[in-house]
Amino acid sequence: MSHLSERPEKPVVGVSMPHESAVQHVTGAALYTDDLVQRTKDVLHAYPVQVMKARGRVTALRTGAALAVPGVVRVLTGADVPGVNDAGMKHDEPLFPDEVMFHGHAVAWVLGETLEAARIGAAAVEVDLEELPSVITLQDAIAADSYHGARPVMTHGDVDAGFADSAHVFTGEFQFSGQEHFYLETHAALAQVDENGQVFIQSSTQHPSETQEIVSHVLGVPAHEVTVQCLRMGGGFGGKEMQPHGFAAIAALGAKLTGRPVRFRLNRTQDLTMSGKRHGFHATWKIGFDTEGRIQALDATLTADGGWSLDLSEPVLARALCHIDNTYWIPNARVAGRIARTNTVSNTAFRGFGGPQGMLVIEDILGRCAPRLGVDAKELRERNFYRPGQGQTTPYGQPVTQPERIAAVWQQVQDNGHIADREREIAAFNAAHPHTKRALAVTGVKFGISFNLTAFNQGGALVLIYKDGSVLINHGGTEMGQGLHTKMLQVAATTLGIPLHKVRLAPTRTDKVPNTSATAASSGADLNGGAVKNACEQLRERLLRVAASQLGTNASDVRIVEGVARSLGGDQELAWDDLVRTAYFQRVQLSAAGYYRTEGLHWDAKSFRGSPFKYFAIGAAATEVEVDGFTGAYCIRRVDIVHDVGDSLSPLIDIGQVEGGFVQGAGWLTLEDLRWDTGDGPNRGRLLTQAASTYKLPSFSEMPEEFNVTLLENATEEGAVFGSKAVGEPPLMLAFSVREALRQAAAAFGPRGTAVELASPATPEAVYWAIESARQGGTAGDGRTHGAAASDAVAVRTGVEALSGA
After folding, report:
1. Nearest to 231 by CA among 486, 508, 481
2. Whole-angstrom Cα distance, residue 352 to residue 733?
3. Residue 197, SS3?
4. Which of 75, 211, 650, 790 is the most exposed place for a label (fewest CB within 10 A)?
5. Of the candidates 251, 188, 178, 239, the residue with the CA atom closest to the CA atom of residue 214
6. Residue 309 and residue 279: Cα distance in Å, rounded?
7. Cβ neighbours of residue 596 closer than 8 Å, sequence gap 6 or more
8. What phi and psi, each to the nearest 5 degrees, are found at residue 788?
9. How far apart are CA 673 and CA 660, in angstroms?
10. Where are any strands of DSSP class E within 546-633?
């Protein structure tokens, strides 16, 4: 076993314990960024001047009326920026734009003594606009050839030969919606400037170092004059990876110009209408199968809705392409990607970061094609799994390690869920109930862990031991409720060999750990855990030498377990507090900077080849649903999940992440339906679903009646911290089983072997129309998805098949 993976005697990792802030969360004692305003004197409040048009050129901006409003202190405009007027890493996001690019785009910000004064002042600012043509929908962008950013192409094998060898060829298209983050805490920042001009920003950000970088270049000062701290976030889900930077820059600019603290917080409507969402996608595809239903070739084009600026759309698209295979071996593939430019908010990271979109495409394809092949959907999926001993690689060239775990979780979830027995019960139920149908679907997950950009796969930590034996950890990861801090406490206590109560964790700050990566890509525990472990190992080695001198033995023969140092085979011992005090008087350094970088990664973005991921997280879910044939309304009756987290660092945290990720994925796939005004009237481009009253979120009522989550046992991950695996993002894709169960239930209203298409999100309305399609015999002959045997000489083609090289 590798040194990084090996666990010592009586480890604190692997012990189930609640979130480190659980008590504060439920009692209301936990502080978030905006709570700090009450502890800060003379705070000014920032409020946006929004233009409610989808696109237009600003021809005049008059602030006089706003400055006359009682309580208004200043109006920030582009003329006030001393550095670079840009909030993005691609330099395509002006902080104060001359051209409005989406409905609700802010062109100026008002600072007031009260939030109400700032609001009234913002309403008084006069903006003259020359309206310009706008592109709102993904379909309109494709029709207008409106794209930006990279257009990668992933190729593997010989696609044309693969189709020539295929007994069945199907084509189709699929468009599916984005998703609103709807974190409990909206975007917030609090900026202050001290007597030396040093800027200190409290920000609700997943990427403090990048927030620091953007604020630094907006203010035109070096990074060492800007410190960013993230206390905790009330949810992030990727929405706070890139988009907090400009908001923090507004607060920092205001503080710099006025000399007073500036508070920034979006209300819920502003957050919904001004911040980006999960990318919606459109896919066109062509797939070939042999006579046994095994995939021979795939040719697809994925178009992501990037919104008005690039933000993180390029890496999101890259990850979508890298995950279109999911758990399936595709010997011949050609997948092209492109980013549509639309006049909507700039879409951004969201849990899974393009992976769910790519995987949804192949799962939808298999769900649609299985009835046409005359194969049970579960069986079709299983036939196409990556197999051990075959030397199979992904379409981008990375060997698939641990393919046996794909089959292992698949079989275990069926055993745990008694799937065979329940399928017979469902068949009997459906035969007896013409107006209500049940279905059970099983789907798998293979999700790559690491940032696609190799440079981001590094982490840092600073660990301090005080003379009394207490320990303080600083690391580069941020806490958004996912339990990262809890795991880091356990990693530190385990590595040092001390009880958990001896260890405390400090808020994430850029002046303690520099140049950190975002807490994203499910890599937080891997990167920061590796760095914390490294720092603690440095300290432990120093302390072992001190203990050896006191115990009269060699350092290599000393173990520190549960806060006591002992020599192997000896009966002497030295308590941790005494050991630390002795080390101090011997002038032994009691602080250490830790560092970790993920080894074995390489990626060529131009050729779209390499091994960008450290390992793959594996899982499987079985979901049973019941659907009403009159309304399309449904309930989730039971869910069984088996998920691979390696050797769990903190099982209670990991199970919670699996449950939460699954429900959030089910929300994206079945409930959450973003809608914009696409008409040519005065509100063109306005987000229509801008409140919880119109945008439906999953809640207790969407929870399965029975919900069973099992973590795969004996699953040590070599080369990862204490043998663990990432858990944040992969469980979201387990919710594919919900959508596929709904498809099968809808099809059950039609003749045996009926194939149906199902919109995403699969709302009750969408399910109802799928039921109606099934009653009419399914989608055969509708010009959307077709199949033909190779013996027919020419595979059926449709107008939908607009694929390069087809």
Report:
1. 508
2. 8
3. coil
4. 790
5. 251
6. 12
7. 458, 459, 460, 527, 528, 529, 530, 531, 533, 534
8. -150, 145
9. 19
10. 558-561, 564-567, 573-575, 591-597, 602-604, 609-611, 615-628
List phi, psi (to 5°) of 537. -65, -40
Q: List helix spans (H) across 286-440.
A: 313-322, 355-373, 377-383, 404-416, 419-432
Q: Which two three-digit tokens encode residue 205?
A: 């950000």
Query: Are 649 and 722 contacting, i.e. CB atoms less than 8 angstroms apart?
Result: yes
Kindly report, residue by residue over 632-673, the tens digit of the pLDDT.
Answer: 999 999 999 999 999 999 999 999 999 999 999 999 999 999
DSSP SS3 for 803: coil
Give yes or no for a contact between 417 and 637, defined as CB atoms under 8 angstroms apart: no
Contact 70, 207 (CB under 8 A): no
Helix %, strand %, coil % of the chain (to 5)? 30, 25, 45
Give the helix/strand (H/E) hosting 111: strand 105-112
Radius of gyration of the chain (CA): 28
Residues noted as catalytic = 729
What values do phi and psi take at 308, rounded to 5? Answer: -80, -25
Supply the angle between the helices 736-747 and 651-670 in degrees, to the nearest 10. Answer: 40
Specify the amino acid at residue 798.
T
Q: What is the DSSP string of 141-163?
A: HHHTT-B-S---EEEES-HHHHH
**Residue 666 Ramachandran class (φ > 0 left, ψ -120 to 50 alpha, else beta):** alpha
Q: Which residue has the tokens 């930590």?
A: 461
Distance CA 152, CA 373 (A): 31
- pLDDT tens digit string along 171-198? 999 999 999 999 999 999 999 999 999 9
The phi, psi pair for 561, rounded to 5°, reads -130, 125
How far, in Å, are 30, 187, 686 from residue 268 at the CA level?
20, 9, 15
∠ CA 348-278-617, nearest 5°, is 95
Percent of the chain with pLDDT over 90: 95
In one letter, which amino acid is 44? Answer: L
> Which residue reads 């919880």 in tokens?
692
Q: 582 near 546, Cβ under 8 Å?
A: yes
**Which tokens in the block code for residue 777?**
């015999």
336 pLDDT higher than 70: yes
Q: Give the DSSP H/E element, type plus range, for residue 492.
A: helix 484-496
- Report d(CA 717, CA 724) in Å as an integer: 6
Query: Looking at this protein, which amino acid is placed at residue 79?
Result: A
